[in-house]
Structure formats: structure tokens, C-alpha cells
Amino acid sequence: MTTELLAPLDLAFWHLESDAHPMHLGALAVFAPTPGVTPQDVLGLLGDRAAAVPRLRMRVRDVLLPVGGAAWFADQDFDVHRHVRRVVLPGDDFMAEATRLAGELMEQPLARGLPPWQMYLIDGPGPGPFAVLVKLHHALADGMRAVAIGAGIFDQIAAPSIAGAARRRVPVPPRSRLPGPYEAAGLALDRIGDVRRALGVGASVVRASRLDLRGSTALTAGSSGTRRLATAELDAGVVQRIRRTEQGTANDVLLAVVAGGLRRWMLGRGERLPEADPRALVPVSRRRPRGAATGNLLSGYLLGLPVGEPDARERLRLVRTAMERNKAAGPLRGAGAVAVLADQLPALAHRFGAPLAGNAARMLFDILVTSVPLPRSALSLGGCPLRAVYPMAPLARGQSLAVALSTYGGRVQVGLVADGEALPDLDRLASAVHDELEDLQALVPTAPAPVCPERSDRCGGNRGTGAAEAVDAAQ
């Protein structure tokens, strides 16, 4: 891997960043201890395995052509010790302290002169659970790609990855740099289609933009540059039981739970519910499971979260109906596909237009709600079992809250990232999300879970990225 231009969307994320709005994804992975495995052992494994992922040895540099562009270059001075560090917490409440620290570390932008990622081993003064915080710049990966890169640290994926990469190295026959007439015609038609689609998305964005930004005082607060993290855990089996009863998808249920949690939280703060429901941007991956493309391949849907509806079942119906409309239109249409529009802009436009585009995000949506797929198989690090993964999404300019969800081990882990001053009571929102699922569960009849074949996509949990797919994508 030598030199590779940043794709337009990757370049947009690179230039959207500021000190107050770092554009990195994150995840807090929590592990159970195993006798005989020391923190020094885990730290060494993290360093060795991260250094073995080629993508993590690349840094961004400006290029002359295209004007305003940038490219990934191999870092000739790469030192993994600049990226992998250990933090020992003094307190007795490990999870509370680790969550607080993760929020503080998420405030800090990644060094732009180095490969844009960091990992922190977080443990306590004695034996007990430990956590690994992973930070990856959004220019490096979208959520699905970030999972594939981060998966390289796990025992089940790191070991076979070298041999697997060797098996897949097949000689590529030489090819002319000039396309033939039929290929050139096809490329021209594809480009025309891309431009037409971008114009359609642009028109949708203009129509969907709001000049009246009234809403929850917390969600519309100005940015302080601080970050706070809160976590929640939901029963994936309950989510699936609600889905089977009420139809739709597990993601519909989770979006309805987020809407109900926001409603509870706003009322608990003594806020008047907003006249217009807060609008969520729900990212959609355009990446194929075994696709070779790197960087970001994203689109999105816009969804009004029905916080004004008092009935939980009706909130779910409203969410399901709106998402069905979004899916019928497809991920390449509508204002939520603004990432597709960004893919059609030249590099110079991203370099100078990113700050303006970032400031306009508040006119389009109020909150990001994203689901991150994880491997379905049990994972471990140095023999220490993985117990939970709390994903974290970045905050765009004008945003005070982002919600990320992932399913692992029969649980849905929720990561809430917020502006620390705008949402000082973020823990109350995490509790409200948990309570909302319990109330929604009470509305559906209790039935025994179906017995399904192993690895069936119809059984509990969201469909995730399998270990084999993660290995493929990490190379």
C-alpha cells in the first residue's frame, strides 16, 4: 500500500474537523479478566496487532493534483507507541470511571501529522475488567469499515488474517490505462447518472432545510467543545420479540426506543415538548460485505422522531411507516443522501466549502442515530472475553447529541455522545432509553423465543458483519 487519493467524502470529513468538532469515530470495548494475562501482555498485543493492519500505518498529506486534494501515504516514521497507550484508573467503580475518561479522550482531536487513530488500554489498580478505547478518524473509515479495522485486534481475527491475506494474493494481469470505447461510453453514462442523482439530492436538501431551528434547548445549544459519554444496555431478545409482534425491523424498534427515551428525558427535565419532532439522520452503508473499497461509502435517511406522540406503540408505528417510505425511495435519493452529494464535489470545493457545509448541518437534522454492525461470533483479546462494545459517533457542528447502537452477545449496547455542557444529565437520557424498552415490551405478549439454526439471520440480534467478512475488509 503506497499512495491513495482520499475519496471526496473522506476529504469532506477531513476538512470538516475543527478543534471543537473532532471528526473521529470511537468504541469502548469492555473485557473480562483472565488469570495470568497482565495489562502489559494486553498492551503488547494491541500494539503488535494494530501495527500489522496496513491501513493504520497511513497518514494524510496534501497533493498538488487534484487541486485541493489529499492522499494517504505510508508513514515512514511510523511508531505504534505514539498511538497505543495505557491509562490506569484509581477509583473502585471501573465502568463509571472508564466511561468518564472515554468522554474526555473523545474531546481531543487526533494529530493530523500522524496516522489518524489511537487506542487506549484502560484498567484499574488491581485485577478486574479492563477496556480498550479505539478512536479512528472518519476520513479513515465509516462505521462498517471501522469495525473491520478494529476487529484486527481480536484473537479470532488477528491470527488467521496474515495467512488469509496470503491466500488471497492473486496476480493481476496487466491492463491498458486507456479504457476501450464501450467501457468509456459506460463510464460516461455512469457519470451522467451520478450528476443527475446529485442534482436531485441537492434539490431535496434545499427543500428539507429548516430556517426555524426551534426545538429542545439542549439539542439546539451552542457547542462548548466538551464531550460526555453515557452508556445503556438493552435486551436484544426483547427487541426481536417486539419486532415479530409489531412487524418492521429491529432497527425500527430501536429508533422508536430512542424517540421514547428522548420524550421521557425532555419531560423529566421540565422541558416543553418541541412543536416539530426532532429530525434524526440515520446513516445507511453502501458498502458490500466483501467489498474492497476503502474509506466512506455512506448515504442516509431523515426521520422525524415522534417525541410528541404519547403512545409507545403508536410511536413505533410512526417510525416504521416513515422508514418504509425512506426505503421505498432508496438510499440514493432524498435529503438524507447528502453524503452522496458530497461524493460528486471536487476536492477544492471540500477544502473551502467544508466549514459552510458543517454549519448548515443543523438546518437539516438535530441528532444522529446510527447502528453499527459487529461480528456475530464471540471475541476475545489475549484470551480475555469481550463483554460489551459501546460505539461512539462524532458530533457535527450544531449538534449536541449522537446515538450509536451495536448488538453483541444478545445485548444491544448504546453509546450516547453529547456536548458536555449542553447535556450534563446524559446519564438520565441513558436511563430513559432503557426504561422505554421495558415499557414497550409490556405492550406485546410474552412468547417463547423460536429455536433457530446456528448463524440464522432470522434469529435474535441485528445482522452483523461475520468474522470472515471483517478479515476481508481489514486487509
UniProtKB/TrEMBL annotation:
Keywords: Acyltransferase, Glycerol metabolism, Lipid biosynthesis, Lipid metabolism, Transferase. Residues 454-475 are annotated as: Disordered. Its EC number is 2.3.1.20. It holds the Pfam family WS_DGAT_cat. The keyword Lipid biosynthesis applies. Pathway: Lipid metabolism; Glycerolipid metabolism; triacylglycerol biosynthesis. It catalyses: an acyl-CoA + a 1,2-diacyl-sn-glycerol = a triacyl-sn-glycerol + CoA. Residues 295-440 form the O-acyltransferase WSD1 C-terminal domain. Residues 6-253 form the O-acyltransferase WSD1-like N-terminal domain. The keyword Acyltransferase applies. It is an enzyme of class 2 (transferase). Belongs to the long-chain O-acyltransferase family. This is Diacylglycerol O-acyltransferase. It comes from Streptomyces salyersiae.
